[in-house]
From TrEMBL:
Keyword annotations from UniProtKB, A to Z: Signal
Name of this protein: Small secreted protein
Residue segments, region Disordered: 166-192
Residue ranges, compositional bias (Low complexity): 178-192
UniProt keyword Nucleotide-binding, yes or no: no
Extent of the signal sequence: 1-20
Keyword Protein transport among record annotations: no
Ranges of Polar residues composition bias in the record: 166-177
Length: 364
């Protein structure tokens, strides 16, 4: 089983008597856990903020973040594990469930979002502290932090609103019998759906990651668009891959990605972030407030938006990899990220394909 870095910081009771300055955190302070061991979704809603803090914040109490060993940024790996659980497990399970079971899974997903975003915020706090200690500019990091904190606050509010309700995770654990039964039923249904959709999904996913071309792209420009102008959620489900490709992939067909100006990836990432913000700040609350056909249409729109967001992420990584390879740099970390994002993209394309022809609703 893949092991995922987590934190278990042990500070002796007499530490405050020995250290007058903030504590330094060393690599030895960490152990490894699987996602199932640090996930917080099982149980009841309403306590996600405290549960997530226990994972990502409490271990750093009294620690000068500027002195944290660089390996502590493996918190990113934990955050990514939570994000993968969201797209590869929660979303399909919620789609396949109904009634109380679907509500419990949705509550679990929100708690997982709080966990994921708390990890992201803490990682950014560490990066900012270390950058400041090196007298580096932190404006970009602080902009990212503000955006992630807004998402976190939104999801904490949703969790608080659902306080006391059943919450179901996707890795097992204690929960009510009804939700557990629904989770099992959902897994079976999702498995059957994936079998039916695999051919169309594989083809669509492959189309989203074209090889770099040979034409000089140094003069190519990619202008930032307002989210309302490039969103693809309105209409019907089933064509998200092609629509997302039209935004992020097709404009670069035939171009040597290594020759692109850095502004191309930067602008693409800005648009990707806009799609991600729409997901957490608009789709999630709208879905929670809707019922019946309206909720289903919004959920379909959210899946299409995920395909859009992830297609942008994959293309940005393709550009970064091409540039790094052209410069003779190691791309192993980037390629690992690309594999993770492609897996998420493939999952969401499958969900969109399964819903082909169904009504899809956007939020702008």
């Amino acid at each position: 089983m893949v092991r995922i870095a987590a934190f278990a910081v042990v500070v002796p009771a007499f530490a405050e008597l020995v250290f007058a300055a903030p504590l330094h955190l060393s690599r030895r302070a960490f152990t490894l856990q699987d996602y199932a061991d640090f996930q917080i979704s099982d149980g009841t809603a309403g306590n996600a903020q405290a549960d997530a803090a226990a994972v990502f914040l409490t271990p750093f109490d009294g620690v000068d973040l500027a002195t944290v060993d660089s390996t502590t940024l493996s918190a990113k790996t934990m955050r990514e594990a939570a994000e993968t659980a969201e797209t590869a497990q929660f979303d399909p399970a919620i789609d396949a469930a109904t009634g109380a079971a679907a509500t419990a899974l949705q509550n679990g997903k929100i708690k997982n979002k709080v966990l994921k975003l708390t990890g992201e915020v803490q990682t950014l706090n560490i990066e900012i502290a270390q950058a400041k200690a090196s007298n580096e500019d932190t404006s970009d990091l602080e902009t990212q932090l503000a955006a992630e904190q807004t998402k976190l606050n939104t999801n904490i509010a949703l969790d608080t609103k659902a306080a006391g309700q059943a919450s179901q995770g996707v890795t097992g654990g204690t929960t009510n019998e009804a939700a557990a039964s629904a989770s099992s039923s959902s897994s079976s249904s999702v498995s059957k759906t994936k079998t039916k959709a695999v051919r169309a999904t594989t083809a669509a996913a492959a189309a989203s990651t074209p090889a770099s071309g040979t034409a000089d792209g140094s003069s190519f420009t990619f202008a930032v668009q307002a989210y309302a102008d490039f969103q693809i959620s309105d209409g019907t489900a089933g064509n998200a891959a092609a629509q997302a490709n039209a935004v992020f992939v097709d404009p670069l067909n035939g171009l040597d990605l290594s020759t692109l100006d850095d502004s191309v990836a930067t602008n693409m990432n800005t648009m990707r972030e806009a799609a991600e913000t729409a997901e957490t700040a608009q789709f999630d609350p709208a879905i929670d407030a809707a019922t019946g056909a309206a909720a289903t249409a919004l959920q379909n729109g959210k899946i299409k938006n995920k395909v859009l967001k992830l297609t942008g992420e994959v293309q940005v990584l393709n550009i970064k990899i091409a540039k790094a390879q052209a410069a003779g740099e190691d791309t192993s970390d980037l390629e690992s990220q690309l594999a993770d994002e492609q897996t998420k993209l493939t999952t969401n394309i499958a969900t969109d394909t399964k819903n082909v022809g169904a009504a899809s609703k956007g939020v702008v």
